[in-house]
Amino acid sequence: MSKKYCIFISALFCAFLTVFLAAGAITPDRAFSPLENRTLEQLPSPTVKTVLNGSFMSSFEAYVTDQFPGRDIWVDMKARTEKAMGKQENNGVYFCKGDALIARFDAPDSTQLTANLNYVNQFAAKADIPVYFSLIPSAADVWADRLPAGAPNASQTAVLQQAAALPDVRWYDTRAALTAHSGEDIYYRTDHHWTSLGAYYGYTALMGALGKTPVSLSQYTKTTRSADFYGTLFSSSGVRWIAPDAIDTYVPEDGITVTSFTYDSKGTPVEEPRALYDTSYLSVKDKYSMFLGGNQSLGVVRTPHTDKPKLLIIRDSYADSLVPFLTPHFSEIHLLDLRYSKLSISGYIQEQGIDQALVLYSVPNFVSDRNLVWIAR
Amino acid sequence: MVFSSVYFLFLYLPAVLLIYYITPLSWRNGVLLLFNLLFYGWGEPRYILIMFASIAIDYTHGILVTRCKRRGNDRGARLAVASSVFFNLALLFFFKYWDFLARSLSAAGVHIMPVLNIRLPIGISFYTFQTMSYTIDVYRGDARCQRNIITFGTFVTLFPQLIAGPIIKYKDLDRQLEKRTHSPERFAAGVQIFVVGLAKKVLLANNLGMLWDAYKAMPAGQLTTAGAWLGIWAFSLQLYFDFSGYSDMATGLGRMLGFEFSPNFRYPYTARSITQFWRQWHISLGSWFREYLYIPLGGSRVGRGRLFLNLLVVWAATGIWHGASWNFLLWGLYFAALLIAEKFFLLTWLERLPRPLQHLYTLFFVLVSWAIFAVEDFSHMGVYLAALFGAAKGGLADGTVWYYLRSYLPMLAVGCTAALPLGAQAWNRLKQTPRLVLLPVLLLAGLVLSTAYLVDATYNPFLYFRF
């Protein structure tokens, strides 16, 4: 190899290193990554203390990687390489039949699971009102036939069986209602949630338990709110080559008000009006938050049917798309998220004159949740 | 800091290269010393003090040994060597083995050593060995005493090989520290070796490591025999590419800065005996133990009983050097048993076997050794070894094995090919022109893909929904 060629190779290498250094320096730093749904690290300034304890270095590392030029393109390239190398999953998400992405379900921590189930049972045993309980299996269970052959996937039915055996709750089976329709679009292909259609089948199961007749789906008209929804599995898998999901709604929102109760930075209670469908979320990445405006510690949905009972749901985000179907049957639906709300539930039930309570979580959230301890307080 | 990280590649390395090359020759060691300290102190700034201590101890001991020798005071010189060895081993013992010993003792009911929860300073096993060899070599007359503390400090802290070897002896670097040649040819060669190493670590080792992680963490009830072999196969490749990739990166970086390190791995999985395997695997460690422990103990020119003991001591030390845990000691003794057997009779038997059987023998015992190496918990190690030998609770094979085999087959195939000299041979057989065209293409592909994997590793979606 000639001297000139060696200079070329050396220069090529150095150029590769410096191009990104320069590009990183020129491009403005991003504050937020919609794909990762988190704020990105900003340039830290060193102080004697942070340098000595090393925290400056770790924030600086995070800054360099968070602000690396073309970050999302690199992630895409890695996912494509993995697929080309025969991999059938990336970052814990399986590439499945029918263009679906399904999050792997790992064997749950049995201590945490048993504790969580006990909390729910204690709550039901103490409550003066009937407590209904169900767990929603994720797509990894209901759509197990779409997973790559032999893909490791822990059993969710084992969790459901253990939950069904609780003595003091009124357990009902959501899984059977979903599996009966597993050929339909009951889960998003790019998100871990159930679709409005899936939520409808979940609703029929609940109605069965309550002894009520569900409204037939044919009485509603389907409205497609968005045809380009890329959900959380799209984000975490790095997979960028599949078609977006559609978000549909069925139930009209006429006469329904939603109020979210929260606290401002000083700790004073604040009431914030929300809507059954907050269409402003359709223009951002996090489109699922269209249902009830996303996370809230306590939300109250009021319907025009003032003669109907009041329902309290202790829940995760799957309930957000279920609530519209419940509106014909209740005067008020109170939604409590134990991650944010630590209020005394029994006190709240008395205060608000709640008639029935429902504990509803998806299986993956339920088995790993660390806030259920608050339900029993 | 580690080489396979975004900030090393795109910030630290360009800065080092730029400043190093615009600095006049006589100042380069000083610049390098500063960058070395930055490199080392990045992860744990307080531990720079260990570096200073290491430099100071061995620098003064080197001078002490030389002074005593000049005065004909051999006893004094020996004492100085002993003192240097003592300090180095004390550093290593305190930071690496104190907690291990304290925990083992208290597990046995003896509470004389408190557990201090010391964070292991990275690379301490490597650099204490390097500096120890310096004083010994000065005493033996194999190395000159270094009177310039900056030059000596540059040797002790030299960042390319500071934290994962190869273990370089001072005598091999002495002249290069004083005067080394920088040329485009050497730099370009360094680039090639570095990129190969980077790709080995980021594309092969990390990827195959995920397959091993799946099997390492698998509960006993689900482990199958086929799965256990698949897992240990993946680990054998992961470890090789991780370690040899790191050595390649060190060698490449060294060349870019004008240093020449001797090779640390020579296709070890092509060995036809365990003896040969250890001549091709982590060569710098093997040769260190040979030169500073095995031969001083009398080497192989001793009676059978003594030879047996020597091998046992050397391999117990080699084992425990790999990590402060009992499984590493067991792993060392496992090799001691094999090497003793080979030395006493097995090697002559082996040579009569057909070549493929010799390879099979070596790979079998090496793969089994990795199960001892990689599974620190003894009860799980038992489960894993039993699974390898057919007593798996999950049976012979299951759907999961096929899933993983299908997912990783291309990767395993690439890995096996890359662990053999095939690639290098094919490359050498290529004509000049295709080589000149291919080289920049391959280099860029290696860099681009490695960057994609490194950036992805920091991709960390906050899954609000996790709800």
Account of the 3D structure:
The complex is a heterodimer of chains A (377) and B (467). Chain A folds into two domains: 68 residues, no CATH class; 279 residues, no CATH class. In chain A, 36% of the residues lie in helices and 19% in strands. Chain A is built from 13 helices and 15 strands. In chain A, helix 11 links the parallel strand 13 and strand 14. Chain B has two domains: 175 residues, no CATH class; 281 residues, no CATH class. Chain B has 19 helices and no strands. The model of chain B has no long low-confidence stretch (mean pLDDT 92). Chains A and B meet through helix 1, helix 3, helix 4 and helix 10 of A and helix 1, helix 9, helix 17 and helix 19 of B.
Mean pLDDT of chain A: 92
Strand count, sense and barrel status of the largest sheet of chain A are:
8 strands, mixed
Distance from first to last alpha carbon of chain A? 76 Å
Total count of helical runs of at least 4 residues of chain A: 13
The strand count of chain A comes to: 15
Helical residues, percent of chain A: 25-40%
Q: Which class best fits the helix and strand makeup of chain B?
A: mainly alpha
Number of domains of chain B: 2
- Low-pLDDT regions of chain B: none
Order of H and E elements of chain B: HHHHHHHHHHHHHHHHHHH
Number of DSSP strand runs of chain B: 0
Portion in helices of chain B: over 70%
Mean pLDDT of chain B: 92
Classify the beta-strand content of chain A into a percent band: 15-25%
Describe the largest sheet of chain B.
none
Task: Supply Rg of chain B.
Answer: 24 Å
Largest sheet, spatial ordering of strands of chain A: 7-6-15-13-14-12-10-11
